[in-house]
Amino acid sequence: MGFTSALSLYSLSHPKVSAGADHSHSHPLKHRLQSEANPLTVRRRCLRFRSVVVKAAAASGRGRRVYSQSQPPLINAPVKQVASFIVPAGVFVAVTFVLWKLVEKLLMPKPARSSLSAAENKSPERGMKWSFAPGTNLLSGFTAKVDRESKQKLNEFAKQLRAFRSVDMSGCNFGDEGLFFLAESLAYNQILEEVSFAANGITAEGTKAFDRVLQSNISLKTLNISGNPIGDEGAKILCEILVDNAGIEKLQLNSADLGDEGAKAIADLLKKSSTLRVVELNNNMIDYSGFTSLAGALLENNAVRSIYLNGNYGGALGANALAKGLEGNKSLRELHLQGNSIGDEGVRALMSGLSSTKAKLTHLDIGNNSISAKGAFHVAEYVKKSKSLFWLNMYMNDIGDEGAEKIADALKQNRSIAIIDLGGNNIHAKGISEIAQVLKDNNVITTVSPLP
Known about the structure:
The protein is of the alpha/beta class and about 450 residues long. The protein has 17 helices and eleven strands. One of its GO terms (biological process) is nucleocytoplasmic transport.
């Protein structure tokens, strides 16, 4: 019964095929030609034959031989066709993918981060890194070249330190490491007398380069570290080293970011040094406290000749403190206090101290200190008594004609001043006339500024 129903399903599509054995083998050649001519029909028949074979096997063994004989030729044809299509398509896709990856690798630029990260992770080379031109050492491609040229330049500088008496290396931007390299040339050097390391980016750490170098050097007379941000800490380190130095006579620390603590370190050095003659501390941040420390050093030091404190913040209190120190000093020859806003009260105290000192001052700079005609009176009183003052600067104050008349009257009695600057003091025709009249009788004065 099952066999009959299976065949009935097949006979609906193919009425010529019957369940009998005679009909299944009646036209084999005709059946094969039809299969080869229409592959789609073969495929459909194949599917149906498979279902029929299963049904027939369950019912009876008679039909098994009929359908099993016709299965092999029905399966091979569609498999070959599918394979002939899939294999070329797969090869085409694979080749296309490989070519796409190759083009992407050739055309796409590498990320810039990779080179940067490699440069960042690379450990820095040992030794000195010195920049002979601003920004040159920022280009990673030129690192080796810069390093070679930097060392070559420093070697040339080192030779100069050994060959010349005076060497100016200001503004070379070699920094702390460059100074450590060059400082070795100063040890036991008996030729060099003056060197400038100004404006080289040297910090407090760099001042340590002079340790065990300046202690053994007795030929160097002038050391200029101006324009380097060594600060108070650097001043302390340097002064501790210079305590054991017996050669340096001039120390220049202008624009070095020094404050009151730095001034105190300089003052402590002055108390112990017997060789230091000139101290330049211009354009720093030294206030009243720092001036007081330096004044205390003047009471004990009898070797220093010149002190430069231009462009600081001494004020009237700072001037008053210095005056007390000057009273007990015998060695000072030059005092430079331009731009400290000492005012009339400060100049009064200062002139009082100078009048009482045993030091023979030759140069006095009190320019740009807000001194009026009242303050000019105190300056005139000192000028009348001084027998050593050679150069007087009162530039950029506000003494006016009244103050000019007082100074002119003092110059009639003074026979030591040769150069005087009264420019920028709001002096008009009347004051200028009084000064011009003095020049007729005073043959010592060579330069007066301003004159019409």
